[in-house]
TrEMBL record:
NCBIfam families linked: argS
HAMAP family for this protein: Arg_tRNA_synth
InterPro entries from the UniProt entry: aa-tRNA-synth_I_CS (IPR001412), Arg-tRNA-ligase (IPR001278), Arg-tRNA-synth_N (IPR005148), Arg-tRNA-synth_N_sf (IPR036695), ArgRS_core (IPR035684), DALR_anticod-bd (IPR008909), Rossmann-like_a/b/a_fold (IPR014729), tRNAsynth_Ia_anticodon-bd (IPR009080)
Coiled-coil ranges from the UniProt annotation: none
Domain Arginyl tRNA synthetase N-terminal: 6-84
Entry protein name: Arginine--tRNA ligase
The encoding gene: argS
Domain DALR anticodon binding: 456-572
Upper taxonomic lineage: Bacteria, Bacillati, Actinomycetota, Actinomycetes, Streptosporangiales
Gene3D superfamilies, sorted: Arginyl tRNA synthetase N-terminal domain (3.30.1360.70), HUPs (3.40.50.620), Isoleucyl-tRNA Synthetase, Domain 1 (1.10.730.10)
Subcellular location: Cytoplasm
Species for this entry: Acrocarpospora phusangensis
Length: 572
């Protein structure tokens, strides 16, 4: 075990059991980083009343039984200040350097489904899809790294009544023109043109309604046209995913159309078992605890009064399929915070139906909005949603401009600009809590200082330059690590927390905490680099030790950024 906080927590728990009995062995030691020591354990304060003793007495009893690789000091009314020995830190950092997992635990494998991105096929991907895509991809990467079987699900909006008018519009303008328009990402223009005709041309509207019937019946010619439409749309989505550098592929597409054949059975099953009932002509589930403004039970509508299906129907079918067919142990729905009530009612209804059993976790990873500098929803000056691909391309070009003074050829500058631009956008998104709003600001995102993606990318590039100048291979650097300077100590202590942070991100869906850890790591390395000469160290032993700390920092930063989906260029 390399994580200092976990080592100290277990030591305090053993001391609690020895001092007060085995029933206290599982007590939370309440260990926190401290400005007076490496960590502070506050458990004596919380236990004092239960034990009928003063906090300082409790702290003294714990200290008397405490066996940790370091020292303990009681301060104030009963705080335990814990300081690890330099030798222990150096030895653990050396072990981390030789560990291919860098101290990240390999957890017992579970099947984890991550539902993310999910654009509507009939519309352009806009900045609102950025967060669901970026956060979902980071969570999928983290779960895989922890050893789980991850099933990515891109739940496209690819079915329903709008496709009647979309297919008829395709026939009107011709297949070739429609494919060209959709492949170019002009989905919004295409949709709006079809909508105008539907609203103003009765003959077109009648054809569109008839086409919906043939689509639902899966008429072969209608299905051919639908596949043509979807193929062109997906090709455009893939351009966005490639530009953004996410791991979604066509194999991960599981759109609404996939569940079409299951919807009638879902309704029949729920009605036959009395879980869903007819209310005002519609088939509804009334999960307990959900009420409207006047205290009336709130319906979760499974089938509309006209016999049509909605999101609730598809989502119930999806839930049952993922649990029963995919054997999910955990499901992460990376969806906008505005869908919170819908998701709560979905989970409650699925539990009533037995389709979400107790041993399966279903979690709504709520995604906050992206705002402009005016604090409102991020849009163009004309008030339209900003196309995601155009936003990404602008980020890339701005990054290239920031790096314009670097002495690179055009191809290298473009390659670095792409990595830095996408890294800046993704990191800005991931570094704030996923359920929070944030302001989209290119100038702040692309800054080479502060808590930004480019700063972390630059930190890794700077470490690589040390090895290039000294003609050392970071992969072959072994140490041993020695600790003599406070900056060496602080860096080693920081690096040893990597495994616990990754495990925490996996458990709590909090990629912003990994961002904070990586920023603190880069900052600790900067202090180390400024105070501890590496290539010009006073002795060969110090040089090899500091090279090993630099190599470990490089690996932790690179691995951490990869888990966030951020590419690290060799040079900047």
């Amino acid at each position: 075990m390399t994580d200092p906080q976990l080592v100290l927590a277990e030591g305090v728990q053993r001391a609690l059991a020895a001092a007060f009995g085995q029933e206290y062995a599982a007590e939370d030691p309440l260990i926190r980083p401290s400005q007076f020591a490496d960590y502070q354990a506050n458990v004596a304060m919380s236990l004092a009343r239960r034990l009928g003793r003063s906090p300082r007495e409790v702290a003294q009893a714990i200290a008397a039984h405490l066996d940790i690789p370091g020292t303990v000091e009681i301060s104030g009314p009963g705080f335990l200040n814990l300081t690890l020995s330099d030798g222990w830190l150096a030895e653990r950092a050396g072990e981390q350097l030789t560990d291919e997992r860098l101290g990240v635990p390999a957890e017992a494998q579970k099947t984890v489904i991550v539902d993310y991105s999910a654009p509507n096929a009939a519309k352009e991907m806009h900045v609102g899809h950025l967060r669901t895509t970026v956060v979902g991809d980071a969570l999928a990467r983290v779960q895989e790294h922890l050893g789980h079987r991850v099933i990515r699900q891109n739940h496209l909006g690819d079915w329903g009544t709008p496709f009647g008018m979309l297919i008829e519009h395709l026939l009107d303008i011709g297949e070739e023109a429609a494919v060209a328009q959709l492949s170019a990402g002009a989905g919004n223009d295409y949709y709006q043109a079809a909508r105008v005709k539907f609203d103003t041309d009765p003959a077109f509207a009648e054809r569109a309604r008839a086409r919906v019937v043939t689509l639902q019946a899966e008429d072969p010619e209608t299905m051919r046209l639908w596949h043509l439409f979807m193929g062109a749309t997906i090709r455009y989505f893939n351009k966005v995913y490639t530009q953004l550098g996410v791991t979604l592929t066509d194999d991960d597409i599981a759109g609404e159309s996939m569940y079409n054949s299951m919807l009638a059975q879902v309704c029949d099953d729920l009605q036959e078992r009395g879980i869903a009932v007819i209310s005002d002509g519609a088939l509804c589930v009334f999960p307990p605890g959900f009420t409207g403004r006047e205290g009336q039970p709130l319906p979760f509508m499974i089938r509309k009064s006209d016999g049509g299906y909605g999101y609730a129907t598809t989502d119930m079918a999806t839930m049952r399929y993922r649990v029963q067919d995919l054997k999910a142990d955990r499901m992460l729905y990376v969806i906008g915070a505005t869908q919170s009530l819908h998701m709560q009612m979905l989970f409650a209804s699925a539990q009533m139906a037995g389709w979400l059993p107790e041993h399966v976790q279903a979690e709504h990873v709520q995604i906050g909005s992206v705002l402009g500098s005016d604090g409102k929803m991020f849009k163009t000056r004309a008030g339209k949603s900003i196309k995601l691909l155009e936003l990404l391309e602008e980020g890339e070009s701005r990054a290239a401009a920031v790096l314009a003074d670097r002495d690179y050829d055009a191809a290298t500058r473009a390659e670095i600009g792409q990595a830095v631009g996408m890294g800046a956008i993704k990191y800005a998104d991931l570094s704030v809590s996923h359920d929070s709003e944030y302001v989209f600001d290119f100038d702040r995102m692309l800054a080479l200082t502060g808590n930004t993606g480019p700063y972390l990318q630059y930190a890794t590039a700077r470490i690589r330059s040390i090895f290039r100048r000294g003609e050392y291979d970071p992969a072959a650097t072994q140490g041993p690590i020695r600790i003599g300077h406070p900056a060496e100590r602080a860096l080693a202590l920081q690096l040893l927390g990597f495994g616990a942070v990754v495990a925490e991100v996996g458990a709590e869906n909090t990629p912003h905490r990994l961002c904070a850890f990586l920023f603190d790591t880069a900052s600790a390395f900067t202090t180390f680099y400024e105070n501890c000469p590496v290539l010009k160290a006073d002795s060969e032993e110090d040089r090899q030790s500091r090279l090993a700390l630099a190599a470990l920092t490089l690996r932790v930063l690179t691995q951490g950024l990869d888990l966030l989906g951020i590419e690290v260029p060799e040079r900047m």
